[in-house]
């Protein structure tokens, strides 16, 4: 199985600060770095580094940030035939990371707002493809693509990040909905249920996985409830951990792994990503994840 990602691609401007600024406060940082990012590109990189065959559809601008934004995609061998250059600035994220690895992020979508479902041709939507999506491109385009994919029996995984309002029939067309604990609370309020995976699955009408940081993750599927603990690490930067989890989970499922095994692999990869600065740049290669999984 291959993976097709439709999503955002950004240049991440990362500021190391002693503490995250409060509203109206300026905090002098200790350092600055520029990395490739964007939730779509991050997840594509994570899946490709884990060994999956990955294609990416999205948009960048015709500016100096485009090359930096796509560097990790190219390095990981992601197929960029569906990446469009548009007359808008490349998406950009400003990320503050404190001494404990916590982050605070502001994003200017730029070219990502021009991503269109039509960039993905019907021939790419097959039963042998996993379509992986996030919420940093227009929700209307995500809806169109999911509807087309579902009609062609393509497996659809949506990471509801950042949380957006999607119609109930669209949720039911998904094979898997992935949320972190905060996104789960937002969706649960909207659906009138509790924010655990089992309740969300019943309310949304699709399988659901909820990640809870150091508390691990849980997934509710037709086979039942699967849980996995987090791997204990000393975090340096947690910025790309969730995207690593999603990409590696998709890669595991594409290889036919059971959900519980794919979740454990995703947890190991996400833990490794927390020990390095940046988002896509911090994501491990398959051999590194294998090494952590093999550690007693």
Automatic annotation (TrEMBL):
Q: Which UniProt keywords apply?
A: ATP-binding, Carbohydrate metabolism, Cytoplasm, Kinase, Magnesium, Metal-binding, Nucleotide-binding, Potassium, Transferase
Q: Could you describe the subunit structure of this protein?
A: Homodimer.
Stretches assigned to the Carbohydrate kinase PfkB domain:
2-285
Q: In which pathway does it act?
A: Carbohydrate metabolism; D-ribose degradation; D-ribose 5-phosphate from beta-D-ribopyranose: step 2/2
Which residues carry out catalysis?
243 (proton acceptor)
Compartments, as annotated in UniProt: Cytoplasm
Cofactor binding note: Requires a divalent cation, most likely magnesium in vivo, as an electrophilic catalyst to aid phosphoryl group transfer. It is the chelate of the metal and the nucleotide that is the actual substrate.
Domain of life of the organism in this record?
Bacteria
State what inhibits or activates this protein. Answer: Activated by a monovalent cation that binds near, but not in, the active site. The most likely occupant of the site in vivo is potassium. Ion binding induces a conformational change that may alter substrate affinity.
Q: Which residues bind ATP?
A: 180, 211-216, 242-243
Q: Per its database record, what is this protein's job?
A: Catalyzes the phosphorylation of ribose at O-5 in a reaction requiring ATP and magnesium. The resulting D-ribose-5-phosphate can then be used either for sythesis of nucleotides, histidine, and tryptophan, or as a component of the pentose phosphate pathway.
The EC code for this enzyme is 2.7.1.15
Instruction: State whether keyword NAD applies.
Output: no
List ligand-binding residues for substrate. Answer: 10-12, 38-42, 136, 243
The family annotation for this protein states: Belongs to the carbohydrate kinase PfkB family. Ribokinase subfamily.
Q: What class of enzyme is it?
A: transferase
Please state what the protein is called: Ribokinase
Catalytic reaction equation(s): D-ribose + ATP = D-ribose 5-phosphate + ADP + H(+)
Its needed co-factors are: Mg(2+)
Residues binding K(+) are 237, 239, 273, 276, 278
């Amino acid at each position: 199985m291959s993976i097709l990602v439709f999503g955002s691609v950004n240049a991440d401007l990362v500021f190391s600060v002693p503490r995250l600024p409060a509203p109206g406060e300026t905090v002098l940082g200790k350092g600055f770095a520029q990395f490739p990012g964007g939730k779509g590109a991050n997840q594509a990189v994570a899946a490709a580094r884990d060994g999956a065959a990955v294609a990416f559809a999205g948009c960048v601008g015709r500016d100096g940030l485009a090359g930096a934004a796509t560097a990790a995609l190219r390095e990981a061998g992601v197929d960029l035939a569906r990446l469009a250059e548009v007359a808008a600035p490349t998406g950009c994220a400003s990320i503050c990371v404190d001494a404990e690895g916590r982050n605070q992020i502001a994003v200017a979508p730029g070219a990502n707002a021009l991503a269109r479902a039509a960039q993905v041709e019907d021939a790419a939507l097959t039963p042998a493809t996993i379509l992986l999506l996030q919420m940093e491109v227009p929700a209307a385009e995500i809806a169109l693509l999911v509807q087309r994919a579902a009609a062609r029996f393509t497996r659809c995984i949506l990471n509801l990040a950042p949380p957006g309002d999607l119609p109930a029939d669209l949720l039911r067309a998904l094979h898997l909905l992935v949320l972190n604990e905060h996104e789960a609370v937002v969706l649960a309020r909207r659906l009138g249920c509790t924010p655990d995976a089992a309740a969300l699955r019943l309310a949304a009408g699709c399988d659901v996985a909820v990640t809870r940081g150091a508390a691990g993750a849980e997934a509710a599927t037709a086979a039942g409830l699967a849980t996995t603990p987090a791997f204990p690490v000393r975090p340096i930067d947690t910025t790309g951990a969730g995207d690593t989890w999603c990409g590696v989970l998709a890669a595991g499922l594409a290889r036919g792994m059971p959900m519980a095994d794919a979740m454990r692999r995703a947890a190991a990869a996400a833990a490794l990503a927390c020990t390095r600065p940046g988002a896509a740049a911090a994501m491990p290669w398959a051999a590194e994840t294998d090494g952590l999984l093999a550690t007693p």
